[in-house]
Amino acid sequence: MKNIAIVIFILTYVLLLILPKIRAYIALISASIFVLLGILPIEKVVDTVDWNVILMIAGTMGIVSLFIESKMPSLLADLILEKTPNIKWAIICLSLFAGFISAFVDNVATVLMIAPVALNIAKKLKISPVTSIIAIAVSSNLQGAATLVGDTTSILLSGYANLNFLDFFYFQGRIGIFWVVQAGALASILVLMYILRDYKQAINAIERTVVKDFFPTILLVGMIILLIIASFIPNTPATINGIICVTLFIIGVVKRYLETKDFQLVLKALGEIDYFTILLLAGLFIIVGGLTEVGVVDDISKLFIRFSNDNIFVIYTIIVWASVLFSAFIDNIPYVATMLPVVASIANTLSIEPYILYFGLLTGATLGGNLTPIGASANITAIGILQKDGYEVKASEFMKIGIPFTLSAVTVGYLMIWFIWI
């Protein structure tokens, strides 16, 4: 049964790579095969799926869609641009702002919000927007690991390791991964400053975006506050974070309907939820549960340990930099979903706290996507925006920014996590 599970898993991963548009269906079909063959007993299926993660992703995506439609991010970007002296600092500030937004909003959504602002500036100054939009995309990916709701990978980690919102800031008497990401961001700013050293054109006054509905902003801020409050309340339901996110989204949708009486707007908001990602995760939870059930996860962890000769630093280094390499070419969601139980098994075998390996995995997998234009959905979105505007972006052009940006941020994070958690 173990060999059959391995073959199905490898085939699933290959299909996920070559058929990305139907990967949700691939994961669900593979999960069904796992159950039908008895690799994962049917009575364990419901418990294997992390419903807190599923609900959090759905609720957060819904709230973010309302937030974007309110045009608040565009207004904030306009206010920032009013304070910048030239195009170099405008791009840097927009990148930092994209990073800040991305710590609480999906990376792709962040790029869709901020990239049009950069395009507008480029057109007014008659310069290429390629560098600025790539910078926005890679900055968005960087900050995805900063908070519990910053990226699907963060939500996966929080669900698996039972981390709450505040644990990303301060955990077990140590600074959390949020501050590690900020240190990486500072290092990456130096890279951007060098790349943009010749961008000295002044910025003319721009017209401010008008925001008429502030309620989605209240929902987003309210979600963060409630997630923080929930972290202080003992014995809460296992799905408390998901319940908070979904409930606030429902409130936002109901309010919109009561104001407009237009059910199409409700359907539009519901349609903004990425159901494919949710179905993909549900399938992956079952597949990984099956691999754990038949002992494949333990076998993989033993290979790591044998290869590293029981050396924790070697294992940690492999996990970080292998995650960077893999995530440069494959989707980090299935990768992280697969590796979390492997990392936990490694830590259990070595009798060490797993958090150094968890945070190393998250850092490498989240930032590794910045190495290539296909390594992260935000990068693909940014390239698509540029192509639609008539700009063809070569892989080499993207990597001139992506590689130094990634290496500087990951190196800082890699060293900080080791010295904080060893």
From TrEMBL:
Q: In its keyword annotation, does this UniProt entry include Transmembrane helix?
A: yes
**Keyword Manganese: yes or no?**
no
Q: Which UniProt keywords apply?
A: Cell membrane, Membrane, Transmembrane, Transmembrane helix, Transport
**Per the UniProt record, which residue ranges are transmembrane?**
26-42, 49-68, 88-115, 169-193, 214-233, 239-258, 270-292, 312-330, 342-361, 367-386, 398-421
Q: Where in the cell is it found?
A: Cell membrane
Q: Which Pfam families match?
A: CitMHS (PF03600)
Q: How does it sit in the membrane?
A: Multi-pass membrane protein
User: What are the Citrate transporter-like domain coordinates in residue numbering?
Assistant: 13-361
One GO molecular function term of this record is: arsenite transmembrane transporter activity
Superkingdom to which the source organism belongs: Bacteria
Which family, according to the similarity comment? Belongs to the CitM (TC 2.A.11) transporter family.
| Protein name in UniProt | TRAP transporter large permease subunit
